């Protein structure tokens, strides 16, 4: 009963502090979470669009190899001498040359 009285009293005061707080929280989430994620997705899409034959890449499964053929939606990757696999373009994760040394 006491909690209900507090809630009813809080709604009676029509100040805009709650609205301002919600807008501020959304703005913080947008600039720290949503915007960087969208930027990263655009960079990855641009990378996948510009794949070239001979480029060293890493697949999403962690397979390192060199691109031998680029088709519309697939890429043929040579993982060892004479061993080629066909993978979806969306599973190409990164440029193997750009991976940081551990």
Q: Which terms summarize this structure?
A:
alpha+beta, SH3 type barrels, 2 domains, five-stranded antiparallel β-sheet
> How do the SSEs run, as a string of H and E?
HHEEEEE
Please write the CATH class name of the largest domain: Mainly Beta
Low-confidence stretches: none
- Write down the overall mean pLDDT: 84
Q: How many β strands by DSSP?
A: 5
User: In this structure, how is the largest beta sheet organized?
Assistant: 5 strands, antiparallel
CATH architecture classification of the largest domain: Roll
The coarse overall form would be: rod-shaped
Quote the CATH topology of the largest domain: SH3 type barrels
Q: What separation lies between the terminal Cα atoms?
A: 60 Å
Q: Supply the number of structural domains.
A: 2
The DSSP helix count reads: 2
Strand content: 25-35%
Helix content: 40-55%
Structural class: alpha+beta
Name the strands of the widest sheet in spatial order. 4-3-2-1-5
Radius of gyration: 25 Å
Family: Belongs to the YajC family.
Protein name: Sec translocon accessory complex subunit YajC
Membrane topology: Single-pass membrane protein
Transmembrane segments: 16-34
